[in-house]
Amino acid sequence: MEKTGFIGLGIMGKPMALNLLKAGYPVHVLESSNAHSELVKAGARALPDAATLAGESDIVITMLPDSPEVEEMVLGADGIAQGIRQGSLFIDMSTIAPSTAEMLFSVMQKKGVEALDAPVSGGQAGAESGSLSIMAGGSETAFQRAEPLFRVMGKSAVRIGGPGAGQTTKACNQMIVGATIQAVSEAFTLAKKAGVDLEKMREALLGGFAQSRILDLHGQRIIDENFKPGFRISLHRKDMNIALQTGREHSVPLYCTALVAAQMDSLLAQGKGDADHSALSELMDQLAGIDNG
């Protein structure tokens, strides 16, 4: 099995790296990571910086919050680009701007390194269970090399196209998820104010054309007023910004995406950035004058 360096041991990255260890992959992590001791106990090897980690690995994976963090980890002092060896594979599984993914692909090509942008969908639960959906951009050769690792971390992996295609697909995914949560939130607020039983409404709608995973899972969250984060508003707002930026780059107006982003901004202003993105329903209740106590 190929030696794999994994950078970014957060709410998603830590379980993804642990799943690779459980599958028998030699995994390298950074000593500076808050979770490195847990990974070392599970069998990982800790290294002092990204350049050293890259030099000791056949495949390097990053799972970081946003474009600036990925750029710094790759291009900064003692970064991945300083140590990665010709013939290695670089996989960024963060959610970043497609234009950044394309730039990093070019950097790696000049070093004789294949690269994939391979963002994921499925949240913390999917990362822990190894059931993420992975959408990849890059060459078919790179994708085939990465597939065994993708099978450990996810239930599905699809090569969408060339560099940046994975990130563009993830931006589209986040647009659809955000807009659907907004629609479910509006519907539940309307039903609540009209005196409709939300449990029964959800049951009825799940049997019809409005059925969706978001109506199922987040509809129940809204009924229970359970906004413990599966995916934080602050992170989804970051993703919506990527979508809006990509829309501007391609001269595509994204009216619905802009509206949902503004709703998320209102929640961030209220200090609710760490709540689950289904908390959009709380804002709708506020605007409708509903007091949930």
Briefly characterize the structure.
This protein is an alpha/beta fold and 293 residues long.
Question: Which characteristics define this entry?
Answer:
293 residues, alpha/beta, Rossmann fold, N-(1-d-carboxylethyl)-l-norvaline Dehydrogenase, domain 2, 2 domains, six-stranded parallel sheet, three-stranded mixed sheet, 14 helices, 13% strand, elongated
CATH topology of the largest domain: Rossmann fold
Biggest sheet architecture:
6 strands, parallel
Strand-residue proportion: 5-15%
Q: Which blocks of ≥5 consecutive residues have pLDDT under 50?
A: none
The secondary-structure element order is EHEHEHEHHEHEEHEHEHHHHHH
Overall tally of domains = 2
Tally the helices: what do you get?
Answer: 14
CATH superfamily grouping of the largest domain: NAD(P)-binding Rossmann-like Domain
Global shape: elongated
Question: Based on DSSP secondary structure assignment, what is the total number of beta strands?
Answer: 9
The helix content, as a percent range, equals 40-55%
By CATH, the architecture of the largest domain is named 3-Layer(aba) Sandwich
**What is the radius of gyration?**
20 Å
Alpha-beta content class: alpha/beta
Give the strand order, joined by hyphens, for the main sheet: 3-2-1-4-5-6
Instruction: Identify the CATH class of the largest domain.
Output: Alpha Beta
N-to-C CA distance: 55 Å
Give average pLDDT, whole number: 96
